[in-house]
Amino acid sequence: MPKLNLTRREFLKASGASLFLAGIPLPGLTKDKPPGTISVILLEGGMDGLTAVPPFGDPNLSKMRRGLTPENYLKLNSFFGLHPSFKYFAGLMAKNNASIVHATNFPYTKRSHFEGQNLMQGGGLNPFSETSGWLGRALDLARTPGRSMSLDMPLVLRGMSDNDNFYPANIRGSSNLMTQLIDSISMSHSKEGSELFKKVSKKSTRKDSIVPRNPASLAKYAGKAMSQENGPLSSVIKVDRFDTHAMQGSDEYGRHGKQLTLIDDIIAGYKEGLGDAWDRSIILTLTEFGRTVLENGTKGTEHGYGTAGLLAGGAITKRRVISNWPGLAKNEQFEQRDLMSTIDYRSVCAACIENALGLDHDLIADKVFFTPKLPRVYNNIFS
User: Fold this and answer.
1) For residue 39, what is the enclosing H or E element?
2) Number of domains in the chain
3) Domain containing 302 — which CATH number?
């Protein structure tokens, strides 16, 4: 797995990675555990899907993005390539455990970070229209009242009901904080729930189990937690610094390429931590928008629309690049500047929920995304 030579302080300043876990079944409240786990990697700033997964088969790519397209891309098929930062992900694709959705996004076109990030996490019809998140609502429907391992639960994990939340001390390095939170949580639940929380507390406050706060270690920690019999069903890792307005670069050593390496490390960490539970897992990326087709005057890109989504996990059994490619010619671009989105990424999220939590698509479309006629793409991804 590729490693970055960064100190702890430099990393936190550069990446802003955070981990959140949710959907831990409570004794007496969850009758049947859903069939799998679902993990989300939030890519804040707007990942450039055209650099991450270059469509080298489109004749306009080289004309419009000469300084942004990696020359040493990994060939996926006769049309699409993969950025060289995705070495581990490429290995998963070779093993039929990863796929890509291209020319996709949530139905949001105004290019605002704040609105776009809120919509991709809330899953509502408009920015700031929901106080809960699409994954939190799905966990509610799956009857797994969310316990979130965090102090500031991200919107995507918030459910309609009140959720308990705490942050494990072996990530923050504060055993006193962990003990206080466990005590306060255990008092508000049944005897069985109280005992479960105390067991988690004892394991999580051991000094020999300190987890470095870097993406791969956080993902490995999350994977191990989800692999347990009564572990969480979902996790979220946030990584920022994808807003590359200047000096974006094209290869794995550029600004954008280094962030793509972090994604690769996170996925590798998840697989290591999950162990045998990898077979029932699904991991997907979310980003608020893509980047413009054309390079700007400072060798970067501006806020765009369509992008690419990465999917990995043992639940995927056949590698695919799923795309209804719109083309990169000027008259094929959204507003003559952005990659058009031709696949509603909410459909992709719905398919992952259906696979991991065993919920019916029509229920997900109506109660999670408030769009009863949301297209079902499950068979495109999992069959």
Assistant:
1) strand 37-43
2) 1
3) 3.40.720
